[in-house]
Design brief:
By secondary structure, this protein is an alpha/beta fold. It is built from 14 helices and 13 strands. A five-stranded parallel β-sheet has the order 3-2-1-4-5, sandwiched between helices. A five-stranded parallel β-sheet has the order 8-7-6-9-10, with helices on both faces. Helix 11 packs antiparallel against helix 13. The radius of gyration is 29 Å and the shape is globular. It starts with a strand and ends in a 7-residue tail after the last helix.
Length: 461
């Protein structure tokens, strides 16, 4: 049976890729990694040649890259407390350790002493495995040139679905801080331009994910995770901050932060830039770097959460709402599903039908907006109507038309649905044989965009 959470004790970091490739066969959810060279314990280990925690920077980055390459389904966390404190009494983790894995053979007495006395949160009768590598220890990763440690480090980002690149950034902030780490997590109003922003995790979930990760890898530091509504966040007015962690993509933002701080007579921040890491298994349509955008793209076609049954809704037909912006593929997808037997209801077409000549909505629109919205064929000139509607000065007129016409449009949707399903005319068993109904709702997407622009994504659409 797979262990839910495991601890991998690494004495030979240069060969960790050969260990990780087999880990997924033993571990289901979380893999903690403890560098043995950072501990002062009973086991024989490689002497620690690093004199400060930032010197581990390249080594930690390589471990996370190997994890993304060889066991990307696991939540891998490299523990840093022992690198920060040379007198760490025990290894502490948020999750209970169900399995301990070593990368070399030790005497049973050494293993027993380590497992029983060196790990705080461990399951009773926790099993132990050994994955050995035939190759000798290789040289450690070269240390970065800037090994300075600061009292208070800061960084910001979306931090959607924590991945290897996020963990490298956060680990860098921990390695370079002696006291406090502040992380700004972007609110919904800053998601504009993100690929598939609709699939971004809620803000509170992203904040909690960052808190849990940082508290897990180094609980000794003061962790401060806050929402931000602009690129500056708390760097705008906090005089205690010393170091700003950025990626190659956000380096320009770091310069902007210091420009603002200079104008406000605040101490300038040192800026440390972390290299981007390439996606180890990219598809042609994905970004070259490891990113949340790629992860969201891979979610397409998957269930984000288990469907919840509703006894008030019949099993058949299965109704799907299809929405998206211009040229997003709604027509192509609906046509393909229609060819496979699905029924399609296009809400735009239904809405347009209710204000054709002779219909009640047609008369009301002309009464409110005048004859300039009538085309030569007597139908409503939609471009002309749109030009009027999008002027703020006619807000009251728009509200009047909506109050009068929304019920008629809703009735049009219901009538179309009843026709599609043959409701009312036949018994339940004789209704449409189609198992799938596709309803195209372009307006829903437009309303979501409006909510995003105003930062109000919490109200019901």
């Amino acid at each position: 049976m797979l262990a839910k959470t495991a601890l991998l004790v690494v004495s030979n970091p240069s060969q960790i890729g050969k260990i990780l490739v087999n880990i997924h066969e033993k571990v289901k959810t979380t893999l903690y990694i403890q560098l043995l060279s950072a501990l002062s314990g009973p086991l024989t280990f490689q002497p620690n040649v690093f004199t400060s925690s930032p010197m581990y920077s390249s080594l930690i980055s390589n471990i996370y890259y190997q994890a993304a390459k060889d066991c990307d389904s696991l939540d891998v966390r490299v523990l840093l407390s022992a690198l920060k404190s040379k007198s760490l009494p025990k290894i502490r983790t948020l999750n209970t350790i169900d399995l301990v894995i070593f990368d070399r053979k030790y005497h049973d007495v050494e293993i027993s002493r380590f497992v029983q006395g060196g790990i705080e949160n461990i399951a009773a009768d926790c099993p132990v495995l050994t994955f050995t590598s035939s190759e000798a220890s290789g040289p450690l990763e070269s240390a970065p040139t800037n090994n300075k440690v600061y009292e208070h480090t800061v960084l910001g980002g979306t931090f959607d679905r924590l991945h290897a690149a996020h963990k490298i950034l956060l680990s860098e902030a921990v390695l370079r801080s002696s006291s406090k780490v502040t992380v700004g997590v972007t609110e919904e109003n800053m998601l504009a331009g993100k690929t598939l922003w609709e699939l971004t995790e809620p803000l509170d979930m992203r904040i909690q994910g960052v808190k849990d990760f940082l508290s897990d890898i180094c609980s000794e530091l003061d962790i401060n995770v806050v929402p931000i509504t602009d690129p500056l966040g708390p760097t705008r007015d906090d005089p205690t901050m010393n170091l700003l962690i950025v990626s190659a993509e956000t380096a320009k933002g770091g310069r902007y932060v210091n420009e603002v701080r200079k104008e406000k007579s605040l101490p300038l921040l040192d800026v440390f830039e972390v290299d981007l890491i390439n996606e180890p298994n990219p598809n042609p349509t994905e970004e070259e770097k490891i990113s949340s955008s790629t992860m969201r793209m891979r979610l397409l076609g998957t269930l984000l959460k288990p469907p919840v049954g509703n006894t008030l809704i019949p099993d058949k037909p299965y109704v799907i709402g299809l929405t998206g912006g211009i040229a997003s593929g709604k027509s192509g997808i609906s046509q393909r599903l229609k060819e496979l037997g699905a029924e399609v209801i296009d809400c735009d077409k239904v809405a347009h039908d209710v204000y054709k000549p002779g219909r009640p909505c047609h008369k009301q629109i002309v009464e409110v907006f005048g004859g300039t919205v009538i085309a030569a064929n007597g139908e409503i000139d939609r471009p002309a109507l749109g030009a009027i509607v999008f002027k703020s000065a006619v807000g009251a007129s728009i509200a009047q038309v909506r109050r009068q016409n929304d019920p008629k449009i809703r009735n049009g949707y219901c009538a179309c649905a009843r026709t599609t399903l043959n409701w009312g005319a036949v018994s339940h068993t004789q209704r449409s044989q189609s198992c799938l109904i596709i309803i195209i709702i372009s307006l829903y997407f437009k309303l979501l965009q409006r909510r995003r622009r105003t930062g109000n994504l919490h109200n019901k659409v």
